[in-house]
Amino acid sequence: MIVYLIRHGQSESNVIGRYNSPDENLTEVGIKQAMDLRDIVKNIDYDIIISSPLIRALRTAQIINVKNKEIITDDRLAERNHRSLIGKSFSITDRDEMWNYYSKTIYADEERVPELCERIKEFLDELKTKNYSKVLIVSHSGVSKAFHVYFNGVPEDGKLLKLGLKNTEIKEYEL
Question: Average pLDDT for residues 143-164, to the nearest whole number?
Answer without folding.
Answer: 98
